[in-house]
Fold:
Amino acid sequence: MIRDIAFDPSYERKILDKKLADQDVELNKSRALAEEKKGETNRIAAETEAKVRVIEQELIAKQLTMKAETDKQIAQINADARLTAAKLIADADLYKAELDAEGTLLEKGALATGEQLKATALNTPGGENFVAFELVQKLNVGEVVVSTQNNDFLDVESVIKKVGATTADK
Structure:
């Protein structure tokens, strides 16, 4: 059995150089492939980053759109609430004005009826006496000297006629 074979050192050197050259070629191929894959990885990373930015911008646009829509709905709800409140206030004011007018009408009617009844009562003999009595009470006459020769104060009918009242006989 042959265990140790030795070649000419120059031949061995050529074989070794050829194997090293083959390995360098394979190494260069692997490096080129690694660079190619690195470029592809960079391209994918750039595309991914661009897609992320697009998605972020779309998300921001969607958020702004939703916020604008929500703000619009809130504004509409507030406007509807103000309109409803204004209508309720207007209806309440109208109802109050109607009741005030009705109350004023009833009050004026009652006052007119009272004045009419008072006028009717004052046109009776008793009413004339009441007017005369009120007139005499309201007179603010200072000191008056009355002659008893011209006036008989015991003659009540005569005194009543002088102050403008009437007697029951009239």
User: Anything to note?
Assistant: The helical segments are 9-122, 125-138, 156-162. The longest helix spans residues 9-122. Residues 148 and 154 are 10 Å apart (CA to CA). DSSP finds three helices and no strands in the chain.
